[in-house]
Amino acid sequence: MKILAVCIGSAERLPGKSYKTGIYKHPVGGNVLVDAEGLVGDAICNRKHHGGADQAVYLEGSLTLDWWSKELGRPIEPGTFGENMVIDDLDNRMVSVGDRFIAGDLVLEVTSARIPCATFAARMGDPLFIKRYTQAARPGIYCRVLHGGAIAAGITVDYRPYDGEKVTMPEMIATFGKTLAAQDRSRYLAAPIHYKLRNILAVQAGT
Fold first, then answer.
1. pLDDT tens for residues 133-147?
2. What's this model's pTM, rounded to 2 decimal places?
3. What SUPFAM superfamilies does the record tag this protein with (predicted)?
4. CA 179, 184, 187, 191 torsion: positive or negative?
């Protein structure tokens, strides 16, 4: 695998909206530094729901974007979904929590699936896109940064699957907001999931 594109954005106003968003991202050339909070220079406007240590970097696989291009009948260029990196030859459906992506000094660990929001739907120009994205079961991938580093398009990526019980991206988006069975909850909690989800599941478990 390799990095197909590195994307950053600035704060821009959505058409018809009063607030600014960092969802408009575009490929950049040269090296981009990634630290514990994500790509240096990338805009994150709503830090209540975006960014932070456990969703510092948002990935998309090129095979998934190719699928969306066919599904939507138009090219989906890198950055369209607000992702920071596009990884060549990656299918989002194959990714699980705890999987690691290593590019040079950068080490990323998968924490959760991307959950679509109203800003994403507005970006895509489709008020029904939240439902469509959820039903497609090919969500984007959020990662924490275990070790920072500089990245650029063309750098080789070493993909290392998690060796524990799997919690896949399709499963995460399908179970979002739902109460899990005890066995599934234990499996989720055994994986290095996003801290917010961990807190929710701990409440469900009564701990």
1. 999 999 999 999 999
2. 0.94
3. PK beta-barrel domain-like
4. negative
